[in-house]
Amino acid sequence: MHFPDRTEVEDLIGPQPAPTFARVEYDPPTETLADPLAETRSELDALPLEELDEGATVAVGVGSRGIHMIDEITAEAVAALEDRGFEPVLVPAMGSHGGATPEGQLEILEALGITEERMGAPIEATMDVERLDEVEIGGTETPVYFSAAALEADAVLVINRVKPHTNFSGRLESGLCKMLTVGLGKQRGAQAFHSTALKEGYVPTIESLTEVIRESTPLLGGIALVENFHEEIGHLEAIPADDLEEREPPLLERAYDEMATLPTDELDLLVVDEIGKEISGAGMDTNVIGRYRVVNAPDPETPEVKLIYVRGLTKKTKGNGNGIGLADVTRRAAVEQLDLQKVYANALTSGSLAKAKLPPVAPDDELAMRVALNGLGGYDPETVRIAWIENTEQLEEFRISEALLEELDDVVTVLEREELVYEDGTARFEPVSE
Known about the structure:
- The chain is α/β, with parallel strands linked by helices.
- The protein folds into 2 domains: about 5-30 and about 265-430, no CATH class; about 35-260.
- The protein is about 30% helix and about 25% strand.
- The chain has 15 helices and 16 strands.
- It has helices at about 5-10, 35-45, 70-85, 100-110, 115-120, 150, 175-180, 185-200, 200-215, 245-260, 285-290, 330-335, 340-350, 365-375, 400-410, and strands at about 20-25, 55-60, 85-90, 130-135, 140-145, 155-160, 220-225, 235-240, 265-270, 305-310, 330, 360, 385-390, 395-400, 415-425, 425-430.
- It has a 9-stranded mixed beta sheet with strand order 12-11-10-9-13-14-1-15-16. Strands 3-2-6-7-8 form a 5-stranded mixed beta sheet, sandwiched between helices.
- Strand 7 and strand 8 form a beta hairpin.
């Protein structure tokens, strides 16, 4: 596909004067767990491990998100299980991620620091599943699939972060239950889940499938992690299988209270340096950008962001740019990073097709900013409200336009005044002498 180069589009929209920016620090009060590894080991006592025979195999489901210390916490859980006389085996619990292939899922785990050598345990990455049952949800018959590798073990537990989801809201969102129903369902289970969830609702689907899985598998429960504003572990808790649906909602409330967000609910333009699956299932946290773009799920009322410019992908996402469709403009450098097989595997499985669409593609930053600023209508550098972030996970330090700084002066600390300049069309910031 040919995307217009600079000579073909630069005369369509004239240069736009940029506002002055301030690089700021945002540090709201939060709590961090002092010793997550010690907590991991001690919390395992809350699970019914005493019911297992010595030498029992325990399948440990882990996923594809960039969770704080996920490699260390997983390694600690593996070591603690071994110390108790069990044989842990790791099973990727990430649905269709990694292009829905064993090799792709192993690649994602390696990017997160989870390898057989480092964990001291084998990884069974097969995409094979077994059909456990069929359940009626609303008026829809839904097959329930579960990882064949996990079913071969004597017991199953999952490790995951409890957090607001990127497609919907409810008493259960991202967490242990969703990892069981979608992640360990592999591609077939994830596709069946999303097909029903889009019609009947995500929460009823999660609840119904979790019940079937609990009754049909040797499920111990899981280790739930809650991160704070700084994306560090604020709380860690092991939850037995019977208590999953009761304990996750209060943990989700805590996650909502402490999640990383920008200190404003209204923006004219949000510039995002990178998106990726390890940051969010949608590449960008939809609770930061205020966009779901999902059938039968209205976008949240806040935050309200008029336009989004995405500049590129993270290395760890390995080309899966699912979420690029949430942007209003991107640049050629981002498109060249896309692995469309992985993007399509993700989008077709989830049924969330809008996230895989390509927005207008500009040849470089300078033209992309022209397109975005012109698209605001009546653009004025003195009043435009712009935030420029690395990604939706790293929100401790970012850049904002001067007009936005006037509104946020009491909640952010100015580190430096800067001006936006371009070098061969690529954006960079230079300090402004005061």
